[in-house]
Q: What sequence folds into this?
């Protein structure tokens, strides 16, 4: 549906995740494991990769994909709720979300809790890397993007896969927050935003946030 652009954006996210040579990486909302596999393939054997999703069927597919790409032994897949991650504080040097940030924050009553959990499991100085749909600033491009999502992605995706899932994708992507609002949300959750980059005229974005070495304020779960 993205003509392969989502792979390019994931690769960009993977390069950012690996900058600084992290030792422990979490792919949160990993789905079928695309980001986790990409990061594992690009990294050395010293990187421990964990993928988390709450849908067991997704994790089963992710495991198959990891094995087919020769990194099955290097990725640990865990079924868990993003609002209550089963990891100690500061467990990861980097956390990545590839098109799952929208699921955790869009009209989600647990949004603050999700962000607090990400903050908790990152070590001080750790990196949060997000690639997600966004809103083009140009009104004509934005209108075309919304029409594409609602008139093509939703109906056509529903013909080849889960209709409800593609309807949600189309509707949530068209209504999701713009880049500036996503940046503000992360800053209000005590992250220091290092990068906020629009992709393809703003239909998607890459955001890099850092957990400060010294927390400026206490994070609450809202």
A:
């Amino acid at each position: 549906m993205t003509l392969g652009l989502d792979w390019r954006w994931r690769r960009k996210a993977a390069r950012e995740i690996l900058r600084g040579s992290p030792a422990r990486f979490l792919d949160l909302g990993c789905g079928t494991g695309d980001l986790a596999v990409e990061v594992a393939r690009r990294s050395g054997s010293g990187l421990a990769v964990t993928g988390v999703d709450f849908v067991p069927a997704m994790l089963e597919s992710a495991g198959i994909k990891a094995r087919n790409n020769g990194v099955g032994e290097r990725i640990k897949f865990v079924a868990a709720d993003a609002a209550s991650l089963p990891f100690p504080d500061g467990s990861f040097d980097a956390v990545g979300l590839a098109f799952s940030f929208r699921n955790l924050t869009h009209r989600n009553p647990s949004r603050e809790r999700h962000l607090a959990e990400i903050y908790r499991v990152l070590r001080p100085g750790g990196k949060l890397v997000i690639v997600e749909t966004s809103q083009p600033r140009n009104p004509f491009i934005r209108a075309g993007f919304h029409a594409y999502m609602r008139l093509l992605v939703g109906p056509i995706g529903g013909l080849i896969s889960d209709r409800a899932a593609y309807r949600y994708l189309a509707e949530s992507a068209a209504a999701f927050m713009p880049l500036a609002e996503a940046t503000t949300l992360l800053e209000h959750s005590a992250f220091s935003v290092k990068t906020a980059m629009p992709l393809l005229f703003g239909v998607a974005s890459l955001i890099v946030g850092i957990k400060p070495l010294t927390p400026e304020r206490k994070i609450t779960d809202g």
About this structure: Residues 136-175 form one domain.
